[in-house]
Amino acid sequence: MAVLADKVAVVTGGSTGIGFATARAFLEEGARVFITGRRKDALDAAVAELGPAVTGVVCDVSVPSELDAFYETVRDQAGRIDVLVANAGIGIVAPLGEVTEDLIDSIFAVNVKGTIFTVQQALPLLGANASVILTGSTAGTRPDRGLEVYGASKAAIRNLARGWALSSRTRGFRVNVVSPGGTRTPGLLDLVTPEMLKQAEGAVPLGRLAEPEEIAAVTTFLASDASSYVNGAEFFADGGYAQV
Hints:
Helix content is 43%, strand content 18%. It has nine helices and seven strands; from the N terminus they run E-H-E-H-E-H-E-H-E-H-H-E-H-H-H-E. The protein has a seven-stranded parallel beta sheet, with helices on both faces. The longest helix is centred in the middle third of the chain and has 20 residues, at 101-120. The protein is globular, with a radius of gyration of 17 Å.
């Protein structure tokens, strides 16, 4: 039986990369899926590929009013959320000495503020025993040069999950973090050179970067009832990069 049958799932940042792979994995496991994205063209392409069981809404998670509009759509069409994946995030490379105020504001607006309001504004819709999954990063514990600000934003995600896990008893949901290592997403491939990619692969004990589907598989486990007693945890899907 499909492990997410009859569940309603939300995946922010679902147009491409890990978010898209997660939405597809959820669909394959029987969920009704809602995704967001900031770019209408990419979101429309994702919805066209994923099929009629997914609804896409253009939404910038750093803008609370846009999240309100998104959740109104979820409320009208599904009435509840069983799985919430706060995945939308951005990464910008800037080594110390080149960090700008705009860079800090951009990263923290999406990665931290956006995650907080993605979860907070979903609270009225979260069903009993809902699974909330935040997308972290190995940069939260082992930031590469130039990704220190990004890593700081992802360290905040881990701390938010620790605090929110204490709400499980009263709020009725559990919250966990999936922290990918380097993953072959369009965002990463557009950000770095082939030489940097090769160097990154060499630093991973498994000798390669992840595919988005491998990260989605971990998220699917946390979305399912098989993880019903997992709460406040961080799952590293990084080939060992931040572990040894």
